[in-house]
Amino acid sequence: MKRIVAALLAGALFGIGLVVSRMSDPTVVLGFLDVFGAHFDPTLLIVFASAVATSLLGYRLALGRGRPLLDSDFHLPTAPAIDAPLVLGAAIFGVGWGLAGYCPGPALVAVAAAVNTGLVFLPAMLAGALLQRFVAQRRAVA
């Protein structure tokens, strides 16, 4: 039960952070990508820099402990390889984010707020996730 409450609180804090930083507004993301245009908005860069600094500090503090508070072991990524599926997935993610102004977190915030663009984006995102799972399973069988 503690893990569920911790996950709920972490998700709520993340959602609040997205709203406060305006990252749930796709115009902010699209404004950041308009580097040479009249509507350039550097807010996203500031949020990214803050997130990297917070993550760096958080990982150093957390990994300095013997184990996590609510689990017996840390579950860290083990695959160090940068392979074609990773690069292709990152490229598709970036193109989708650049076109729509949404990534999964802000899309969920938009859906919770009943924003029309979020309500259109979420089914497309879920369809893409299901397609990726289908392709990965087919590749594993072959």
How would you concisely characterize the structure shown here?
The chain is mostly helical. The chain has one domain.
Keywords:
142 residues, mainly alpha
Description:
- The chain is mostly helical.
- It has one domain.
- The protein is 70% helix and 0% strand.
- It has helices spanning 2-20, 26-33, 43-63, 84-100, 104-112, 116-141.
- Helix 2 (26-33) crosses helix 4 and helix 5 (104-112) packs across helix 6.
- The chain starts with a helix and ends with a helix.
- The model has no long low-confidence stretch (mean pLDDT 89).
Give the arrangement of secondary structure elements:
Layout: H1 2-20, H2 26-33, H3 43-63, H4 84-100, H5 104-112, H6 116-141
**Percent helix:** over 70%
Order of helices and strands: HHHHHH
Unreliable segments of 5+ consecutive residues: none
What overall geometry do the principal axes of the alpha carbons give?
A: globular
- By DSSP (H or I, 4+ residues per run), the number of helices equals 6
